[in-house]
Design goal:
The protein is α+β, with helices and mostly antiparallel strands and 269 residues long. The chain has a single domain, classed as Deoxyribonuclease I, Chain A, CATH 3.60.10. It is globular, with a radius of gyration of 18 Å.
């Protein structure tokens, strides 16, 4: 089954760690955000033993795509500086729309502005789904909002719900208009479970309201492809081999790795 990994590397030069993560997790498609490494240099590092990976170039300034498939199978559909929508066409499999996104940070955008960013992303995705003639879509990226925030759950936003049963309805009608669901398995990544981290990003601020752990890095799945997915098929990665991606307190190791943790998806489609 194909495996997808997303990681915001926070502008760190981490070629060895990226390579180790890709091979240790048998990653078929690797999407990196805030990666300032030269793609050719990273490609050489990924292929240090043999020519396994290809770089799938694009114009999106925020994301890099690498794949173990022929890069022509990962064709561009639409891109913005923060979003890359690709058509994944593998032999003997149905076409998949793969969306990578890195939305603006809370440090620079208000809550209201982030809602509009989610809404604009939803419109982009639905436009490309209409052109493709199907909704077999996966979205992965650093959305810089938690699963419970308005832009994520609103019908005119990404409309991503925590319940597989609800998502299986496909869509719902609000004020006479139909809105498609995403299923968001990342709700299950909050809190202490299965020995993994309680989120993907940790932020401690002296305010009355502080979540501490956040799940900004997310994977959303359209109901059309949920038959090939179980909740165990997505996880937050906290280590690679003997190298921990978290510090002694169990928080993302922003010094030796990144302040975001990678997320991994296995999907049959």
């Amino acid at each position: 089954m194909p495996r997808f990994m997303f990681w915001n590397v926070a502008r760190k030069s981490l070629p060895d760690l990226i390579v180790s993560l890709a091979f240790a997790n048998d990653v078929d498609i690797l999407v990196l955000a805030e990666c300032q490494l030269d793609p050719n240099d990273l490609l050489r590092a990924l292929n240090f033993k043999s020519a396994v990976y290809e770089y799938a170039p694009g114009l999106c300034e925020s994301l890099l795509f690498f794949t173990r498939f022929d890069s022509q199978f990962l064709a561009l559909m639409h891109e913005t500086p923060r979003v890359s929508i690709r058509r994944l066409q593998l032999p003997a499999r149905k076409e998949l729309i793969l969306v990578g996104a890195h939305l603006p940070s809370k440090m620079h955008f208000s809550d209201e502005s982030q809602i509009f960013q989610c809404t604009e992303l939803a419109v982009l995705i639905e436009t490309e789904e209409t052109r493709a003639g199907h909704k077999r879509t996966v979205l992965l990226g650093d959305l810089n909002v938690n699963p419970f925030e308005v832009g994520m759950i609103a019908s005119s936003g990404l409309h991503a719900v925590s319940s597989r049963e609800v998502a299986a309805r496909g869509e719902r009608i609000v004020q006479g208009k139909s809105f498609s669901f995403f299923y968001n398995p990342m709700w299950g990544s909050f809190g202490d479970r299965h020995g993994s981290a309680p989120g993907t990003y940790y932020y401690d601020k002296a305010e009355s309201v502080n979540y501490f752990w956040n799940v900004f890095d997310q994977i959303l799945i359209r109901p059309e492809i949920l038959d090939g997915f179980t909740d165990d098929d997505v996880r937050v990665v906290t280590e690679v081999g003997e190298t921990a991606l978290v510090d002694g307190s169990g928080r993302p190791d922003a010094i030796n790795a990144s302040d975001h943790l990678p997320i991994l998806l296995t999907l049959e489609f």
